[in-house]
C-alpha cells in the first residue's frame, strides 16, 4: 500500500468514526430531550397542572365551589385525552407567566392572547380560539358616544384589567384617553358601574354580558368587536414534544367540532348562568 493510499484510508476511517459518533451523540441528545419534556413528566406524575386566571366565561367559580367555564372544559378534555388527572392552579393574571417559568404549573390555559412580547418568554401552541375586544360604556358618563374616536380624548377614563390584551388594545386604539388599570376583573367593572370610568375595554362576551346585566346603567357603543386575537396554550420554551402534542390535539378537536361546540355553549348561550352566583 502506498503512502497516499494509507493516508486516504486513515482519513476516511476517521471521518466514518466521527460521523458515527455524531449520530450516536445526536440520538442520545434527542432521547434526553424527549425524557425531559413536560409531556413525559406529566405522564409520569399522572397529573396535568394548569395555570389560569378567572375571566367570565373562560373560567369561573361555580356555586358548588368548583371551577367551570370554556377553559376548564378544554383543560379537562386535554387531561382526559392524556390519560391523567387535572389540577387547577388559579393565579393572578399579571404573575401567570413568571409562575409558569418557575415550574408552578405545566401549562397556561386561560384565554391567553398570542402576542410577540409574550412569545419572547413562552412558546405558544397553534390558536385554538379567537377573542375580540369590545367596549361597554356608562350611560351617564359616556352619553352619545358611539365610536372609538368618541372615547379617544384626554377627558375619557377607560377601565381595563392589568396585563391583559385589553390593556394593550386600549393603549393602541385609545392613546389619548386615561387608562385605569386593575389587577382584578371585578374592580375594573366596579369602576365603570360607579361612573369613575366612561367605559371598560375587555374581550367579549364580557361587555355584552355586562350590558345585559345592567341595562339601566350600561350600553354597547360599538356594533362589533374592534379586534380579533388568537388564543393559544402557553408552555415553557425548549419543549418541542409537548408543543407537538398540543398542536395535534387542537387539530383533532377542531376536526371533531368539539372546540366550536364548547365555545358556542359558553359564549353564545346563557344555559350555564344558573351554575354561577
From TrEMBL:
Give start-end of the signal peptide: 1-26
Task: List the residue ranges forming a coiled coil, or say none.
Answer: none
**Keyword Ligase tagged:** no
Q: Which GO terms describe its cellular component?
A: cell envelope; membrane
Q: Which PROSITE patterns match?
A: SBP_BACTERIAL_3
List the GO molecular function terms.
ligand-gated monoatomic ion channel activity
Compartment(s) where it occurs, according to its Swiss-Prot or TrEMBL record: Cell envelope
Give start and end of each Solute-binding protein family 3/N-terminal domain: 47-270
Q: What is its main location?
A: other
Keyword tags: Signal
Q: Where is the Ionotropic glutamate receptor C-terminal domain?
A: 49-269
Q: Which family does it belong to?
A: Belongs to the bacterial solute-binding protein 3 family.
Protein name, per record: Extracellular solute-binding protein family 3
Amino acid at each position: 500500500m502506498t503512502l497516499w493510499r494509507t493516508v486516504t484510508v486513515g482519513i476516511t476511517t476517521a471521518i466514518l468514526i466521527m460521523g458515527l459518533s455524531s449520530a450516536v451523540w445526536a440520538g442520545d441528545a434527542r432521547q434526553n430531550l424527549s425524557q425531559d419534556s413536560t409531556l413525559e413528566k406529566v405522564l409520569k406524575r399522572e397529573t396535568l397542572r394548569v395555570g389560569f386566571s378567572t375571566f367570565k366565561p373562560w373560567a369561573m367559580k361555580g356555586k358548588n365551589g368548583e371551577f367551570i367555564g370554556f377553559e376548564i372544559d378544554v383543560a379537562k378534555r386535554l387531561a382526559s385525552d392524556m390519560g391523567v388527572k387535572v389540577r387547577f392552579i388559579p393565579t393572578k393574571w399579571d404573575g401567570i407567566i413568571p409562575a409558569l417559568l418557575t415550574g408552578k404549573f405545566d401549562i397556561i390555559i386561560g384565554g391567553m392572547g398570542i402576542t410577540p412580547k409574550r412569545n419572547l418568554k413562552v412558546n405558544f401552541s397553534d390558536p385554538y380560539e379567537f377573542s375580540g375586544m369590545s367596549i361597554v360604556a356608562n350611560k351617564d358618563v359616556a352619553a352619545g358616544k358611539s365610536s372609538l374616536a368618541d372615547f379617544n380624548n384626554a377627558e375619557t377614563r377607560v377601565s381595563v384589567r392589568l396585563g391583559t390584551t385589553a390593556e394593550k388594545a386600549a393603549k393602541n386604539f385609545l392613546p389619548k384617553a386615561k387608562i385605569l388599570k386593575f389587577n382584578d376583573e371585578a374592580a375594573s367593572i366596579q369602576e365603570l358601574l360607579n361612573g369613575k370610568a366612561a367605559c371598560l375595554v375587555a374581550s367579549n362576551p364580557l361587555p355584552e354580558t355586562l350590558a345585559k346585566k345592567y341595562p339601566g346603567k350600561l350600553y354597547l357603543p360599538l356594533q362589533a368587536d374592534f379586534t380579533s386575537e388568537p388564543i393559544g396554550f402557553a408552555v415553557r420554551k425548549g419543549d418541542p414534544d409537548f408543543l407537538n402534542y398540543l398542536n395535534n390535539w387542537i387539530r383533532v378537536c377542531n376536526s371533531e367540532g368539539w372546540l366550536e361546540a364548547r365555545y358556542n355553549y359558553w359564549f353564545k348561550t346563557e344555559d350555564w348562568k344558573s351554575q354561577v352566583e
